[in-house]
Amino acid sequence: MENRTTIGIDIGGTKIRIGKVSNGILLHDDLLATNAHRTRNEIISDLIRSIHGMMDDSVCGIGIGAPGLIDEENGIIYNPHNIPSWKETHLKMEIESFFHVPVKISNDANCFALGEKLYGKGKKHKNFVGLCLGTGVGAGIIINNELYSGTLSMSGEFGGIPYLHHDYEYFCSGQFFINCYGISGQEAFEKAMVSDAKAIKIFDEYGTHLGKLIQTILLALGPQAIILGGTVTQSYRFFQKAMLETVNNFPHKKVSEQLDIAVSEMPKIAILGAASLVNKL
């Protein structure tokens, strides 16, 4: 039918973004606080209330991107670090039983990568990694133009790979600035914007760590491109040089020279990616 729409939802530890989508166009969207310290039912009730505000007869399904391990077939979310009460949440069953439309769930980073593949900078690439740099590090993997989720949707958990005295997430997410220098990424960005020498040096160090992570991804998958997303990318101008210098030291030059590193230009792309899950039902 011509007015067929879907609802896409991007669940994060601090915010939940919900949008109504038609033919890849975000018609309108809503933003609510996750308030992740609350009980499982309180968070789900807020989610249902927000979805209800967008539901009408045109909605044919709901796609959800969520943190944690995901049983995609049954729509169960396991142990998301940033939503402690969702230890085993049968979200597909909860939402379907309320709205009586099909629901599809995948990892939030997968939805970012899928959105980039369909509507963003991933269109031209057959194989790429969508790397999300926010409060954590997540990645969605596109292989031969298809999303690869892995067991329990955990493919691309590069942040958990041991690195130096901790792991890549410690050094390559927004946690780096607090962990290593006791300031937030936003504070570091604001200082760098006024040419603060210490802040610029911090971003150089961050870029070096991120370049090492990209080297690891190259060794694991050899993608054509890395597409960066997440809140940390607002500071890209400050860590780009150090990141590229590190990537260029990759031992297999023919691989690194062909790698396309880009920054997502669509801040709500994960909503579009989540909505597109419905088409895969």
Descriptive notes:
The chain has 281 residues and is an alpha/beta fold. It folds into two domains: 5-110 and 269-280, Nucleotidyltransferase, domain 5 (2-Layer Sandwich), CATH 3.30.420; 124-263, Nucleotidyltransferase, domain 5, CATH 3.30.420.40. It has ten helices and 15 strands. The chain has helices at residues 40-52, 91-99, 108-119, 168-172, 175-181, 185-193, 197-221, 236-247, 253-256, 269-276, and strands at residues 5-11, 15-22, 25-33, 59-66, 69-71, 76-78, 88-89, 103-107, 128-133, 137-143, 146-148, 162-163, 166-167, 225-229, 260-263. A five-stranded mixed β-sheet has the order 3-2-1-4-8, sandwiched between helices. Helix 6 (185-193) packs across helix 7. The longest helix has 25 residues, at 197-221. It is globular, with a radius of gyration of 19 Å. The two termini are 17 Å apart. The relative contact order is 0.16.
Number of helices: 10
Radius of gyration: 19 Å
**Beta-strand content:** 25-35%
Helix/strand order: EEEHEEEEHEHEEEEEHHHHEHHEH
* Widest beta sheet: strand line-up: 3-2-1-4-8
Q: Helical residue percent?
A: 25-40%
Secondary-structure class = alpha/beta
**For this entry, what is the oligomeric state of its chains?**
single chain
Coarse morphology: globular
The biggest beta sheet, please? 5 strands, mixed
Per DSSP E runs of 2 or more residues, the count of β-strands stands at 15
Total domain modules: 2
Name the average pLDDT. 95
List unreliable stretches of 5+ residues. none
